[in-house]
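Fill in residues.
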């Protein structure tokens, strides 16, 4: 599998990159790819079907100069920024394989990611565990306390490939989330009505350790032969910086 550690200059370009990579593999084929990127500034990202006014504190975002963008995949709304590591997987789907359906892909990918990170967290906190919760959350478990979410994930599918991407809170300024995001319109059962402040946590692992764990889990080693820079730029310009896309719902 290809490995791409690439953070582009703007939020729009980073979101466009994931979609362009999915389109590139759908068109040209290949073994798939694992990408990492780290946001340098704060911005809100809503899931494809999210209503901006419902999920984000639009007035607070405007006052603080926090842009609101929409991604091409589903899932909930997140605040991106320093201390958050993003990963993206582009994987080939095959009939009858572990990625053949949305739910099967969720189970397969989340369990592999969980196992990879659980090995690392146990070295730091022997009593801690990592659980898959909701559909595509990763949560830190420190019984008897309720699990705390540190990762949300989503997918988009095409005929032959899927994009599965997520955020990992490593050393994020968590109080900012409550400032710029409303309580989500859809909550997993294990949230138990908790506020962002009481529900979310940082994994407190260095980014290079998390990257290594995921890289090894997905056997991602080779640099991609080509990166669709032109397609990324076009998608960023024509979609990801436009109100018609970002504020469509």
């Amino acid at each position: 599998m290809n490995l791409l550690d690439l953070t582009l200059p703007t939020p729009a370009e980073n979101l466009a990159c994931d979609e362009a990579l999915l389109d590139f593999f759908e068109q040209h084929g290949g073994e798939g790819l694992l990408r990492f990127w780290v946001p340098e500034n704060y911005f809100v990202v809503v899931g494809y079907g999210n209503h901006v006014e419902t999920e984000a504190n639009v007035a607070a975002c405007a006052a603080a100069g926090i842009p609101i963008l929409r991604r091409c995949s589903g899932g909930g709304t997140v605040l991106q920024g320093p201390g958050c590591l993003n990963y993206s997987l582009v994987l080939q789907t095959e009939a009858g394989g572990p990625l053949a359906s949305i739910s099967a892909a969720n189970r397969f990918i989340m369990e592999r990611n969980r196992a990879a990170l659980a090995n690392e967290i146990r070295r730091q906190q022997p009593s801690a565990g990592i659980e898959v919760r909701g559909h595509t959350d990763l949560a830190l478990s420190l019984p008897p306390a309720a699990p705390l979410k540190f990762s949300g994930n989503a997918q988009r599918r095409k005929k032959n490939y899927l994009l599965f991407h997520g955020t990992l809170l490593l050393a994020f300024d968590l109080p900012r989330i409550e400032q710029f995001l409303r309580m989500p319109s859809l909550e997993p059962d294990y949230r138990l009505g908790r506020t962002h402040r009481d529900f979310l946590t940082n994994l407190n692992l260095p980014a290079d350790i998390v990257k290594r764990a995921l890289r090894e889990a997905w056997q991602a080693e080779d640099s991609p032969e080509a990166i669709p820079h032109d397609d990324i730029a076009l998608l960023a310009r024509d979609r990801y910086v436009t109100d018609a896309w970002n504020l469509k719902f």
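The domain at 2-99+153-246 is CATH 3.30.930.10 (BirA Bifunctional Protein; domain 2).
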